[in-house]
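Proteins fold reproducibly. Take a tokenised chain:

. . .
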Amino acid sequence: MTIALYARRKGWPLTGVTVRLRHSRIHAEDCAECETKRALLDRIEREISVAGELTKEQRTKVLEIADKCPVHRTLTSEINIRTILL
């Protein structure tokens, strides 16, 4: 949705966006780019497919915009969960 809104505002010829996610658990020590090195980590693999005659520069910008999506920002930030039992 963030990508589509951005492309529409810019007048880009984007005709569709498909995002596929895969979730797995990995050992932290097997993750070279991860800061945490103990226990298991959640890994989400994201595939973004865009339809339309976008230039190489526009396709690159699509990835930047995808990382600014509210859901992406939430998942990549520190999360603090507080539970209240009613």
